[in-house]
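Homework help thread (please don't just give me the answer)

Our assignment gives two proteins as sequence + structure token strings and asks us to describe the second one. The first is just a warm-up. Here they are:
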Amino acid sequence: MVEALITVRPARLEDASEIAATHDTSWRDAYRGVIPGRELERMISRRGAEWWRSAIRRGSRLLVLDFDESVGGYVSYGRNRMPSLPYGGEIFELYLAPEFQGVGFGRKLFDAARRDLAGHGLRSTLVWALADNERAISFYRRLGGDVVRRAPERFGDELRDRVAFGFE
């Protein structure tokens, strides 16, 4: 019998390369055909292992899905960056490698981040998703998010709509 331990835990410095790899594959999977190709490549290339090591060193709130000592996903979060919206916390990014999607791991990361935010007095949460990212839109709706704002985001010369979901 083969057993694998799956946990959600704070990111460690030695996770940086695997987080970068997860970022790369999950962003390509989620945004190919949504974000213009050149802009997508530029965004991915800025987030290498050293960028993630720096984020971990700075104490960024960053949890990983640890699948038998390998990173299968991550969530980053903190205080809401848009004070005009009445939410204390914000989930900045939540991504899973494609092979970890669709089996409940995204919800585990989401719930863990919300628990940590609530433990710091941030009981309501905001999360943004690109409107053309149908999987993300569906995911946040299934979790009970209410659409609270829409706004454009620029990628090079092109605009894409993004949607904010609020969670009380």
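The one we have to describe:
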Amino acid sequence: MKLLFDFFPIILFFVSYYKASFLIENSFIGQLIDPARPDFINATIIATGIAIIASFVQVAVHWFNTRKFERMHIFSLVLITVLGSITIFLGNPAFIQWKPTVLNWLFAGVFLGSMYFGEKPIIQRMMGHHIVLPPNVWSTLNLAWVVFFFISGAANLYVAFYYNMDASPETRMDTWVNFKLFGLMGLTIIFVILQAFYLSRYISEDDLQKQTEKKGENR
């Protein structure tokens, strides 16, 4: 459920991009769109605006449920608001296409920096209260996240600006929108599964029993 919640703005971006013509014809949005622009540009503008609103909703819902903000949501909100606003005002999809790369590489830098500044890698600070691992395992896991974020950002950059260069701009935009949802989500799911297999080597049955008992006490 958390994965779907984290991808909530991206899912709405995907849906609104492909349903843009319906929104233009059946809502006030049609009055805000320049009909002289190509359809895929207008679709990108609509999807970007909806994704910005969805990001604000995401942050608000998380705060309402937990009374705290999640840094990933805040970083994403700032980036999509800044880059998305430029895309909307200039009618240039390139700015919003940069957003996943900037966000992923920002996280890669933060995770990498935490290995040299501070007492613990950031992944240990996030997960350390759930499981106990040797220091070298935490470092390996943290470095794996650095690599994952870097690859995700590079993959987005490639699909957005270098993949299938002979295709029409609309086809290339469609390809990127599909990758933004299914590609990046797929990479995340695969990485999380691999992480689970890796961690299973270090989590004993006693650890699982303690975690289960702790959850029962908190209910």
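TA reply:
I won't write it for you, but here's a hint about the kind of observation we're looking for: Residues 93-207 form one domain.
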